[in-house]
């Protein structure tokens, strides 16, 4: 949606912005619906979540563009200044890329939990699959084209792309297989999202009745995955590496539970502490985190998330924020496979600033095509499929 979201039909808002947007009644954390018109419940889209998505996607882009710029002889004075004033003092991991990812994880924990408590398992699966996979499949096919992959991977060219490689990348199964062949660099976060969806499906009966019990089980799952990561073979270890980020999504879920008055604040403190300890403990287990920057970065992301959640009643939607937020998923997936080939081609003839500007421009054109041609149609298809599955209701 290009316009600021006001009071909108709940189904439309959910399907157009999931999994990282929310449809809950703003300013009313209780379970009551905000309004009922023509027999259909109406809710308000939370502005703070759009603000976070509109910031998180460009931060991930910035991280990757910095790595491109660093390939030139002269470092950027802007990047150097940002590093000196912000990134290094705050010990932000990477160039704000993981900060953006942590924000996305917190938002997903908040939003997708909300949907899991209001949808049946079938509806939940249909909507999540058609949200995640259509754009991912197109991106994987695009990267698999000879010529494109040479530009995308540059010196780290994938030597052989087979039908099996393409299939496993389309399904995200490549993140639990040895050897790992990765065609879409940001896909690792989607694998974590899908694992979170699976956990939520298993937890649905508890989430809809006793949120505290679901949190206990979910925290236990995260702990067990890390504790026994090396006990069941290489593929399980890869699953455990992904589940090591589950506590970040659970922190978003805990914020949702407090916001919806599903658990008291003191209980949120207990669960939040447990989730945080597991997340930081994982950083000491030699499971892909080279330093404690992942903890500092996630802590800052959580602080900003909570502050914006508290400020939600004072926030107002804007067209720019809504525009970027609605397209954040396509921005996230496409910038690496669109901007980088373009910038690589332009690198010999343009200075880095102009190469990046051209890369961003072409990426946003592709993002708009993706949003209008893939995301929206997939969401409409999800709505139709859900309606067909829904049992007929007798007249009141």
Overview of this protein structure:
By secondary structure, the protein is mostly helical. It has helices spanning 10-17, 47-69, 77-90, 97-116, 121-143, 148-153, 163-171, 187-207, 211-227, 234-243, 246-259, 265-282, 293-311, 319-326, 328-346, 352-389; strands at 7-9, 35-37, 40-44. A 3-stranded antiparallel β-sheet has the order 1-3-2. β2 (35-37) and β3 form a beta hairpin. α4 runs parallel beside α8 (187-207), α8 packs across α9 (211-227) and α9 packs antiparallel against α11. The longest helix is centred in the last third of the chain and has 38 residues, at 352-389. The two termini are 34 Å apart.
Query: Nearest-angstrom radius of gyration?
Result: 21 Å
Give the helix/strand class.
mainly alpha
The biggest sheet, with number of strands, parallel, antiparallel or mixed sense and barrel status, is: 3 strands, antiparallel
Q: Could you list the spans in which at least 5 consecutive residues all have pLDDT below 50?
A: 1-43, 392-396
Distance between the termini: 34 Å
β-strand amount: under 5%
Total DSSP E strands: 3
Instruction: Report the helical percentage.
Output: 55-70%
**Order of strands across the widest beta sheet?**
1-3-2
Average pLDDT figure: 83
Inertia-based shape: globular
* Element string (H = helix, E = strand): EHEEHHHHHHHHHHHHHHH
Number of helices, counting only DSSP H or I runs of 4 residues or more: 16
Key structural traits:
396 residues; mainly alpha; disordered C terminus
Summarize the structure.
It contains 16 helices and 3 strands. With 396 residues, it is mainly alpha-helical. A hairpin with a 2-residue loop joins strand 2 and strand 3.
